[in-house]
Amino acid sequence: MPPATPELISPRSPRVSAARRLAKRNFRGKERLFLAEGPQAVREAAGHEGTLIELFATLDAAERYADIVGEAQDAGARVHLASEQVIADVSTTVTPQGLVGVCRFIDTPFEEILAARPKLVAVLANVRDPGNAGTVLRCADAAGAEAVVLTDASVDLYNPKSVRASVGSLFHLPVAVGVPVERAVAGLKDAGVRILAADGAGTDDLDDELDKGTMGGPTAWVFGNEAWGLPEETRALADAVVRVPIHGKAESLNLATAAAVCLYASARAQRASAGCRTVTES
Questions:
Q1: Rounded mean pLDDT of the chain?
Q2: Residue 99 contacts residue 63 (beta carbons within 8 Å)
Q3: Residue 282: is its pLDDT beyond 50?
Q4: What is the DSSP letter of 241?
Q5: Residues near 147 by Cβ (< 8 Å), separated by ≥ 6?
Q6: Are 197 and 235 a contacting pair, CB within 8 Å?
Q7: DSSP 3-state assignment of 183?
Q8: Does 280 have pLDDT greater than 50?
Q9: CA 263 → CA 50, 201, 216, 218, distances in Å?
Q10: How far is the C-alpha of 216 from the C-alpha of 237, rounded, in Å?
Q11: What angle is formed at CA 23 by the lines to CA 17 and CA 29, rounded to 5 degrees?
Q12: How far apart are CA 147 and CA 169, in angstroms?
């Protein structure tokens, strides 16, 4: 096992107290630090240069995930061996996995995202559920999106539930936070991106959009609140308001599922437009 700093015996240690406070948004914002829990998140944080600054690990977890502990130390993080009680105090999960990292904020200025001329973007407008936000981020990453934008009315990107739900995808693609939806849409349009609002009451059908061949260009999908969707003023900003067709008897799709369908539809259309095709060999 890689060497580590002395064991943190007391949950009242100043280092433990400082990490514990990061469960609250106001402390995260003040310190510009957040928690990444579990082996997958910690590994991804260690691989994101300059992000992981501290790691708490039980003896069992440090032995089981010795490679991750080594990667954390190679990344310059200070590693603490900690008791189960310390991990329970720092963690925000019911069943901690023995690894909790302290990370620097990694959000990207919106202007940098625009300057990169993205081809596929997910915009979360007034999304309040942290689990949904993290899952949509994961879907965007899986679909090959080049950026995610959280508007100023959306949940905190660094909420522990959002970080966990992203399953490491938070560290894979640029994410802008606190952007007013009007500014997000206007900036993306100026960058040559077509704006599609995803809404169950949309006038355009996703299947029809695919059949018409209109989805091969740069696209940003705007996803709304879990309970009431997108307000009229936000829908009015979009180039089209698109609904995911329900072919069976389901009443609707939840936000993350609808986002996955929309983002993958755009990704496939863009690959087809570029003359590319993905082939899976058995």
A1: 91
A2: no
A3: no
A4: E
A5: 108, 113, 116, 118, 121, 122, 173, 174, 175, 176
A6: yes
A7: helix
A8: no
A9: 30, 18, 12, 12
A10: 20
A11: 100
A12: 11
- With CA atoms as reference, report the closest residue to 90 among 203, 10, 30: 10
Is pLDDT of 38 > 80? yes
Biggest CA-to-CA distance, the chain: 64
CA distance 128 to 155: 5
Determine the Cα–Cα distance for residues 21 and 280; give it in Å rounded to an integer.
46
Q: Average pLDDT for residues 72-100, to the nearest whole number? A: 92
User: What are the φ and ψ backbone dihedral angles of 90, each rounded to 5 degrees?
Assistant: -80, -35
- Please tell me the distance from the alpha carbon of residue 65 to that of residue 54, in angstroms, as a whole number: 16
Q: What is the pTM of this model?
A: 0.90
Q: pLDDT of 211-224, one tens digit each?
A: 998 899 999 999 99
Strand spans (E) along 70-172: 78-82, 99-104, 120-124, 147-151
All residues at 6 or more sequence positions from 160 whose CB lies less than 8 Å from its CB, including other chains = 23, 34, 35, 37, 92, 93, 130
Over the stretch 185-212, which tens digit does the pLDDT of each residue have? 999 999 999 999 999 888 899 999 999 9
DSSP tag of 193: P
Residues 35, 163 contacting (CB under 8 angstroms): yes
Report pLDDT digits (tens) over 115-164: 999 999 999 999 999 999 999 999 999 999 999 999 998 999 999 999 99
Closest by alpha carbon to 36, among 128, 167, 127, 150?
A: 167
Q: Which two tokens stand for residue 125?
A: 């407008």
**What's the one-letter identity of residue 158?**
Y
